[in-house]
């Protein structure tokens, strides 16, 4: 009903009543549809009636996963945004042209009550879906048996990208409900960063739990745990950190976590775990110690060029080369089987590994490869020239 028609006294009361009845039907349809959407989003797709750890034993529904929980939470945020627009629309639809009628006030109060009821239901259930996201991350078992990027990392990145745009809707929730990670309400509540920080911390706790699990402790390769953390932290940096802007195809919708709580924390964990990983290669430097010149004696029958060391002196160099070769082959064989799927990360680790021992090995090789320390097997000891490493 336009403003002109409402002010036009020529419209009969019967016509006004017919229009009012039509609007009432529209309002009823909108409310019914909205409540259906709320029920479908929260209780069916959101799984509010399903446990995040054991599922629903009565219906056989599986536990709610991170992806389903995040989709439901994002759906709840969308509903809250819609409810904010629905309120004024309901009020307009329920307005009557005759302000003297008692039905007008009743209609207005009904509209307000409907809006408040829908809003409260949406806030309450959206808060539950947000809690479900955190619980799903905590209860998700990381089934990966090696160091590759875990599926839960991809799920959490997707969840954060879904929730990130709804900062206003999140404030609508925290204005009225306390959350485990954000106990204050109203103006004292935090912004959506607090939710995202909580999600990341839950994910990091899941990583640590996996590293300490029997899956990794029983493996002979002690680099498995550190590399698992390296792969997953690097994945988070590349997909959520400041660098994801230049890596993203869609520039219009960016989700960038550039605050210190993310950048510094993930960066520190990455560097700490990388140091643990690189320490596995430090054992090679133990063999690259210098031999005192006074311990190097040559056989008397040797010619001036290509002098052959005595057996005892030659053994000092042989032991160092053989020890290096043995540990290099063992360490290389173990690390070669560890997955690093990101090409950029693989190159970073390869260069860092070279810096651990290659400069020292190059100097050692150049110095002692010129000496004839083995009569028959010199080439076997020198089978790894620095240029091939």
UniProtKB/TrEMBL annotation:
GO terms for cellular component: exocyst. Keywords: Exocytosis, Protein transport, Transport. SUPFAM superfamilies: Cullin repeat-like. It holds the Pfam family Exo70_C. One of its GO terms (molecular function) is phosphatidylinositol-4,5-bisphosphate binding. GO terms for biological process: exocytosis; protein transport. InterPro entries: Cullin_repeat-like_dom_sf (IPR016159), Exo70 (IPR004140), Exo70_C (IPR046364). The keyword DNA repair does not apply. Residues 100-389 form the Exocyst complex subunit Exo70 C-terminal domain. Belongs to the EXO70 family. Component of the exocyst complex. This is Exocyst subunit Exo70 family protein.
């Amino acid at each position: 009903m336009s403003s002109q028609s409402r002010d036009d006294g020529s419209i009969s009361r019967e016509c006004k009543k017919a229009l009012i009845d039509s609007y009432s039907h529209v309002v009823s349809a909108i409310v019914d549809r909205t409540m259906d959407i709320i029920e479908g989003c929260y209780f069916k797709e959101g799984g509010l009636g399903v446990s995040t750890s054991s599922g629903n034993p009565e219906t056989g529904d599986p536990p709610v996963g991170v992806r389903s929980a995040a989709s439901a939470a994002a759906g709840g945020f969308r509903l809250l945004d819609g409810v904010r627009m629905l309120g004024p629309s309901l009020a307009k639809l329920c307005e009557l042209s005759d302000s003297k009628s008692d039905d007008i006030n009743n209609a207005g109060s009904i509209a307000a009550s409907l809006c408040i009821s829908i809003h409260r239901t949406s806030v309450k259930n959206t808060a539950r879906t947000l809690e479900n996201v955190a619980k799903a991350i905590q209860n998700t078992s990381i089934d990966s048996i090696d160091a590759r990027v875990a599926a839960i990392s991809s799920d959490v990145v997707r969840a954060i990208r879904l929730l990130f745009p709804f900062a206003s809707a999140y404030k609508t929730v925290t204005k009225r409900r306390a959350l485990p990670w954000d106990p204050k309400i109203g103006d004292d509540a935090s912004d959506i960063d607090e939710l995202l920080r909580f999600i990341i911390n839950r994910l990091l706790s899941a990583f640590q739990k996996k590293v300490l699990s029997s899956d990794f402790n029983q493996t002979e390769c002690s680099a498995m745990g550190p590399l698992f953390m390296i792969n997953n932290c690097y994945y988070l940096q590349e997909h959520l950190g400041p660098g994801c802007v230049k890596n993203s195809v869609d520039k219009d919708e960016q989700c960038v976590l550039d605050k210190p709580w993310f950048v510094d924390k993930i960066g520190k964990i990455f560097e700490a775990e990388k140091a643990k990983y690189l320490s596995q290669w430090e054992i090679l430097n133990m063999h690259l110690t210098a031999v005192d010149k006074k311990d190097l004696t040559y056989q008397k029958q040797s010619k001036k060029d290509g002098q052959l060391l005595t057996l005892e002196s030659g053994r000092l160099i042989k032991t160092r080369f053989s020890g290096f070769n043995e540990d290099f082959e063992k360490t290389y064989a173990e690390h070669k089987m560890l997955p690093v799927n990101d090409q950029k990360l693989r190159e970073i680790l390869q260069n860092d590994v070279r810096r651990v021992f290659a400069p020292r090995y190059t100097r050692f090789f150049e110095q002692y490869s010129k000496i004839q320390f083995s009569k028959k097997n010199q080439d076997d000891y020198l089978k790894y020239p620095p240029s091939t490493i």
